[in-house]
Amino acid sequence: MTPDFRGQITLDGPSGTGKSSVARAAATRLGAAYLDTGAMYRAATVAVLDAGADPEDAAAVATVVAAARIEVGTAADTEVVRVDGVDVAVRIRGAEVTRAVSAVSAVPAVRRRLVDQQRALVAAADAVVVEGRDIGTVVLPDATLKIYLTAAPEARAQRRAAQLGISDPAEVAALAVDLRRRDQYDSSRADSPLRPAADAVIVDSTELDREGVVDRVVELARSAVGARP
Ligand SMILES: Nc1ncnc2c1ncn2[C@@H]1O[C@H](COP(=O)(O)OP(=O)(O)OP(=O)(O)O)[C@@H](O)[C@H]1O
Ligand SMILES: Nc1ccn([C@@H]2O[C@H](COP(=O)(O)O)[C@@H](O)[C@H]2O)c(=O)n1
């Protein structure tokens, strides 16, 4: 009989490749917890914007984030994201936060603080799927299974457009530009840049639908457990 999954699955990759939706669905199928680390950086960005700090001012960002209470849930079926007790689950997905988040997440003091919190949340779970940009490389270098999700830029822009109900070609092109800008920022920062871990399995989702990717992740998770000594 296939054993239940126990351990940590990391799911990293560029923006719009399907990390959140795939990680959440895979966690549900595996009976695992789910941690959206992007939501934590987005919540930190809400704190920065509300404090009136400039997201490009690293010292100001570090001061604001050090004082903010950031809470995220780890249940796959509910989204909990709070800053200082206020529910920001909807607000973190807005354009203002999306524009500023890469600058905030590039600040090393912000990363140190949130990575500590991420490791504590992971330590509390027997089985967990964690998605982000640096999970396999920095946060959980000894994870049970590491996956790096990719997809062609055009597919990613189309998916994001469908998600937002956008069909105007000029607006789709603007979405593609924003995805590229964020990937460029996230891949070129000095601290924990976006890149695949040396031991990550690369999954290209361009030609797969969402369920196909989830099937692949679940299959890889079951083989990883089976392959344990
Ligand atoms: N394989 C797929 N085929 C088609 N659509 C997909 C696929 N995977 C995910 N999607 C859809 O693409 C959109 C973007 O997915 P999602 O938000 O999960 O990506 P992400 O990598 O977490 O993005 P970001 O890093 O910007 O938060 C969602 O609407 C999702 O349902
Ligand atoms: N481990 C991570 C996760 C996210 N980021 C930064 O947050 C931004 C938002 O992430 P989403 O997955 O919610 O789109 C992302 O663009 C990164 O700047 C990170 O640095 N590390």
TrEMBL record:
InterPro entries, per the entry: Cytidylate_kin, Cytidylate_kinase_dom, P-loop_NTPase
Binding, ATP: 13-21
Pfam families named among the record's database cross-references: Cytidylate_kin
Alphabetical UniProt keywords: ATP-binding, Cytoplasm, Kinase, Nucleotide-binding, Transferase
EC number(s) given by UniProt: 2.7.4.25
Catalytic activity: CMP + ATP = CDP + ADP; dCMP + ATP = dCDP + ADP
GO biological process: nucleobase-containing small molecule interconversion; pyrimidine nucleotide metabolic process
Enzyme class: transferase
Occurrences of domain Cytidylate kinase (ranges): 9-222
Main location: cytoplasm
Regions that span the bilayer: none
Region Disordered, residue ranges: 1-20
SUPFAM superfamilies per record: P-loop containing nucleoside triphosphate hydrolases
Intracellular or extracellular location(s): Cytoplasm
GO molecular function: ATP binding; CMP kinase activity; dCMP kinase activity
GO cellular component, one term: cytosol
Family that this chain belongs to: Belongs to the cytidylate kinase family. Type 1 subfamily.
The protein's name: Cytidylate kinase
Chain's gene name: cmk
